[in-house]
Write a structure and sequence with these properties.
Layout: H1 7-19, E1 23-28, E2 37-42, H2 47-56, E3 80-81, E4 116-119, E5 122-129, E6 138-149, E7 152-155, E8 160-164, E9 172-178, E10 185-193, H3 210-218, E11 223-228
Antiparallel strand pairs: 1-2, 3-5, 4-5, 5-9, 6-7, 6-8, 6-10, 10-11
Helix pairs in contact: 1-2
């Protein structure tokens, strides 16, 4: 294995390690007042967080490696996202991964109310792009879910699919998606661009387990989860 000689190489190695990891288990004994327990985790879910964290510390601030820049780094070429509840307050970084408490029953990692909302004919989803160029064509997938027991959701078999032409650099587009779902339930939205796919494969289905779902959604701004009340 070649050593990482620059911060960029180190980040690339971390990202490759995440993308090359499958499902794994770890025996945890933290926090100190909890008994030892086995936790299940899925690889390929934190590479976007890793890239963003180093961006906030100044990596990618310049395209010239010989130039020192004292500034927050640049976003990727394309970074589409659906705003979550971390996007509030004076220190918010839209589309970012600011640390928030992770609780499977909800929290600031859930979608913002004005980003995914009911309309008369379905739902309206606001898609943003903090990248350096237009997103190109986007593919939306929507799943409705209902609770089936403690910590589990049942998802509809096939997602509702919708296409959006593009979101400009630094812009936002609101996409109306028609659907006949009237009852209260959970809605999961995935947005995929060729240059910025979500971590939920195009042929994949959402996890039924809420803990696994939380880790998937909280670490990917292409995914949005929200509980919607019944249509009125």
């Amino acid at each position: 294995m070649a050593p990482a000689r620059t911060a960029d190489q180190f980040v690339s190695a971390l990202i490759d390690a995440d993308l090359g990891t499958g499902a794994w288990h770890v025996v945890a004994d933290w926090p100190y007042n909890r008994s030892r327990r086995t936790l299940a985790r899925q690889g390929g879910q934190v590479h976007k967080v890793v890239r963003w964290a180093f961006e906030r510390q100044g990596l990618y601030a310049t395209d010239d490696p010989t130039v020192a820049a004292d500034a927050i780094g640049q976003a990727p070429a394309v970074d589409v996202f659906i705003a979550d509840r971390r996007n509030s307050g004076p220190d918010a970084h839209p589309g970012g991964y600011a640390p928030v408490p992770l609780r499977a029953d909800g929290g600031d990692w859930l979608a913002a109310a004005d980003a995914v909302r009911r309309t008369a004919g379905g739902v309206a989803i606001t898609l943003c792009n903090r990248g350096q160029q237009a997103s190109g064509a986007l593919r939306l997938r929507l799943w409705w879910g209902t609770p089936i027991g403690t910590g589990s959701l049942a998802w509809q078999t096939q997602p509702i699919e919708h296409e959006v032409p593009s979101v400009p650099k630094g812009g936002a587009v609101t996409a109306p998606v028609g659907c006949d779902k009237q009852a209260a339930g959970w809605l999961l939205v995935a947005v995929d661009a060729d240059a910025d796919p979500s971590n939920l494969p195009l042929d994949g289905t959402p996890p039924a387990n809420r803990l696994a779902l939380m880790h998937l959604v909280a670490n990917d701004n292409n995914l949005a989860l929200i509980a919607l009340s019944a249509a009125t």
